[in-house]
Design goal:
The protein is α+β, with helices and mostly antiparallel strands. Helix content is 24%, strand content 23%. The protein is built from two helices and four strands. About 6% of the residues have low confidence.
């Protein structure tokens, strides 16, 4: 029997639809993730076969700060936040 695991992730540094696309692609690329609904600042991830820390690492590799909702808020002031569009790049 498969048990559904819904992860709620808070994400800092997102401010546009390009950020949403980057995070969605990163999260859906994690093995074991069934689906992900991403909005600016948060993601709801259906991941019955994925570890929460792998989902967080994927979001951080995409350039954002992330934490599970039940954990303390991510540290602010991280230089590596946002997509290239938000940071003034192309």
């Amino acid at each position: 029997m498969s048990q559904t695991s819904l992860l709620q992730v808070r994400i800092e540094g997102m401010s546009c639809s390009h950020c949403v696309s980057l995070v969605q692609k990163a999260v859906r690329g994690v093995e074991g993730v069934r689906d992900a609904v991403v909005r600016v600042g948060r993601a709801d991830v259906e991941a019955p076969n994925a570890a929460a820390d792998e989902v967080i690492r994927a979001i951080e590799r995409a350039g954002f700060v992330a934490a599970l909702v039940k954990e303390p808020a991510p540290q602010s002031g991280n230089e590596k936040k946002g997509c290239g569009c938000c940071r003034g790049g192309a």
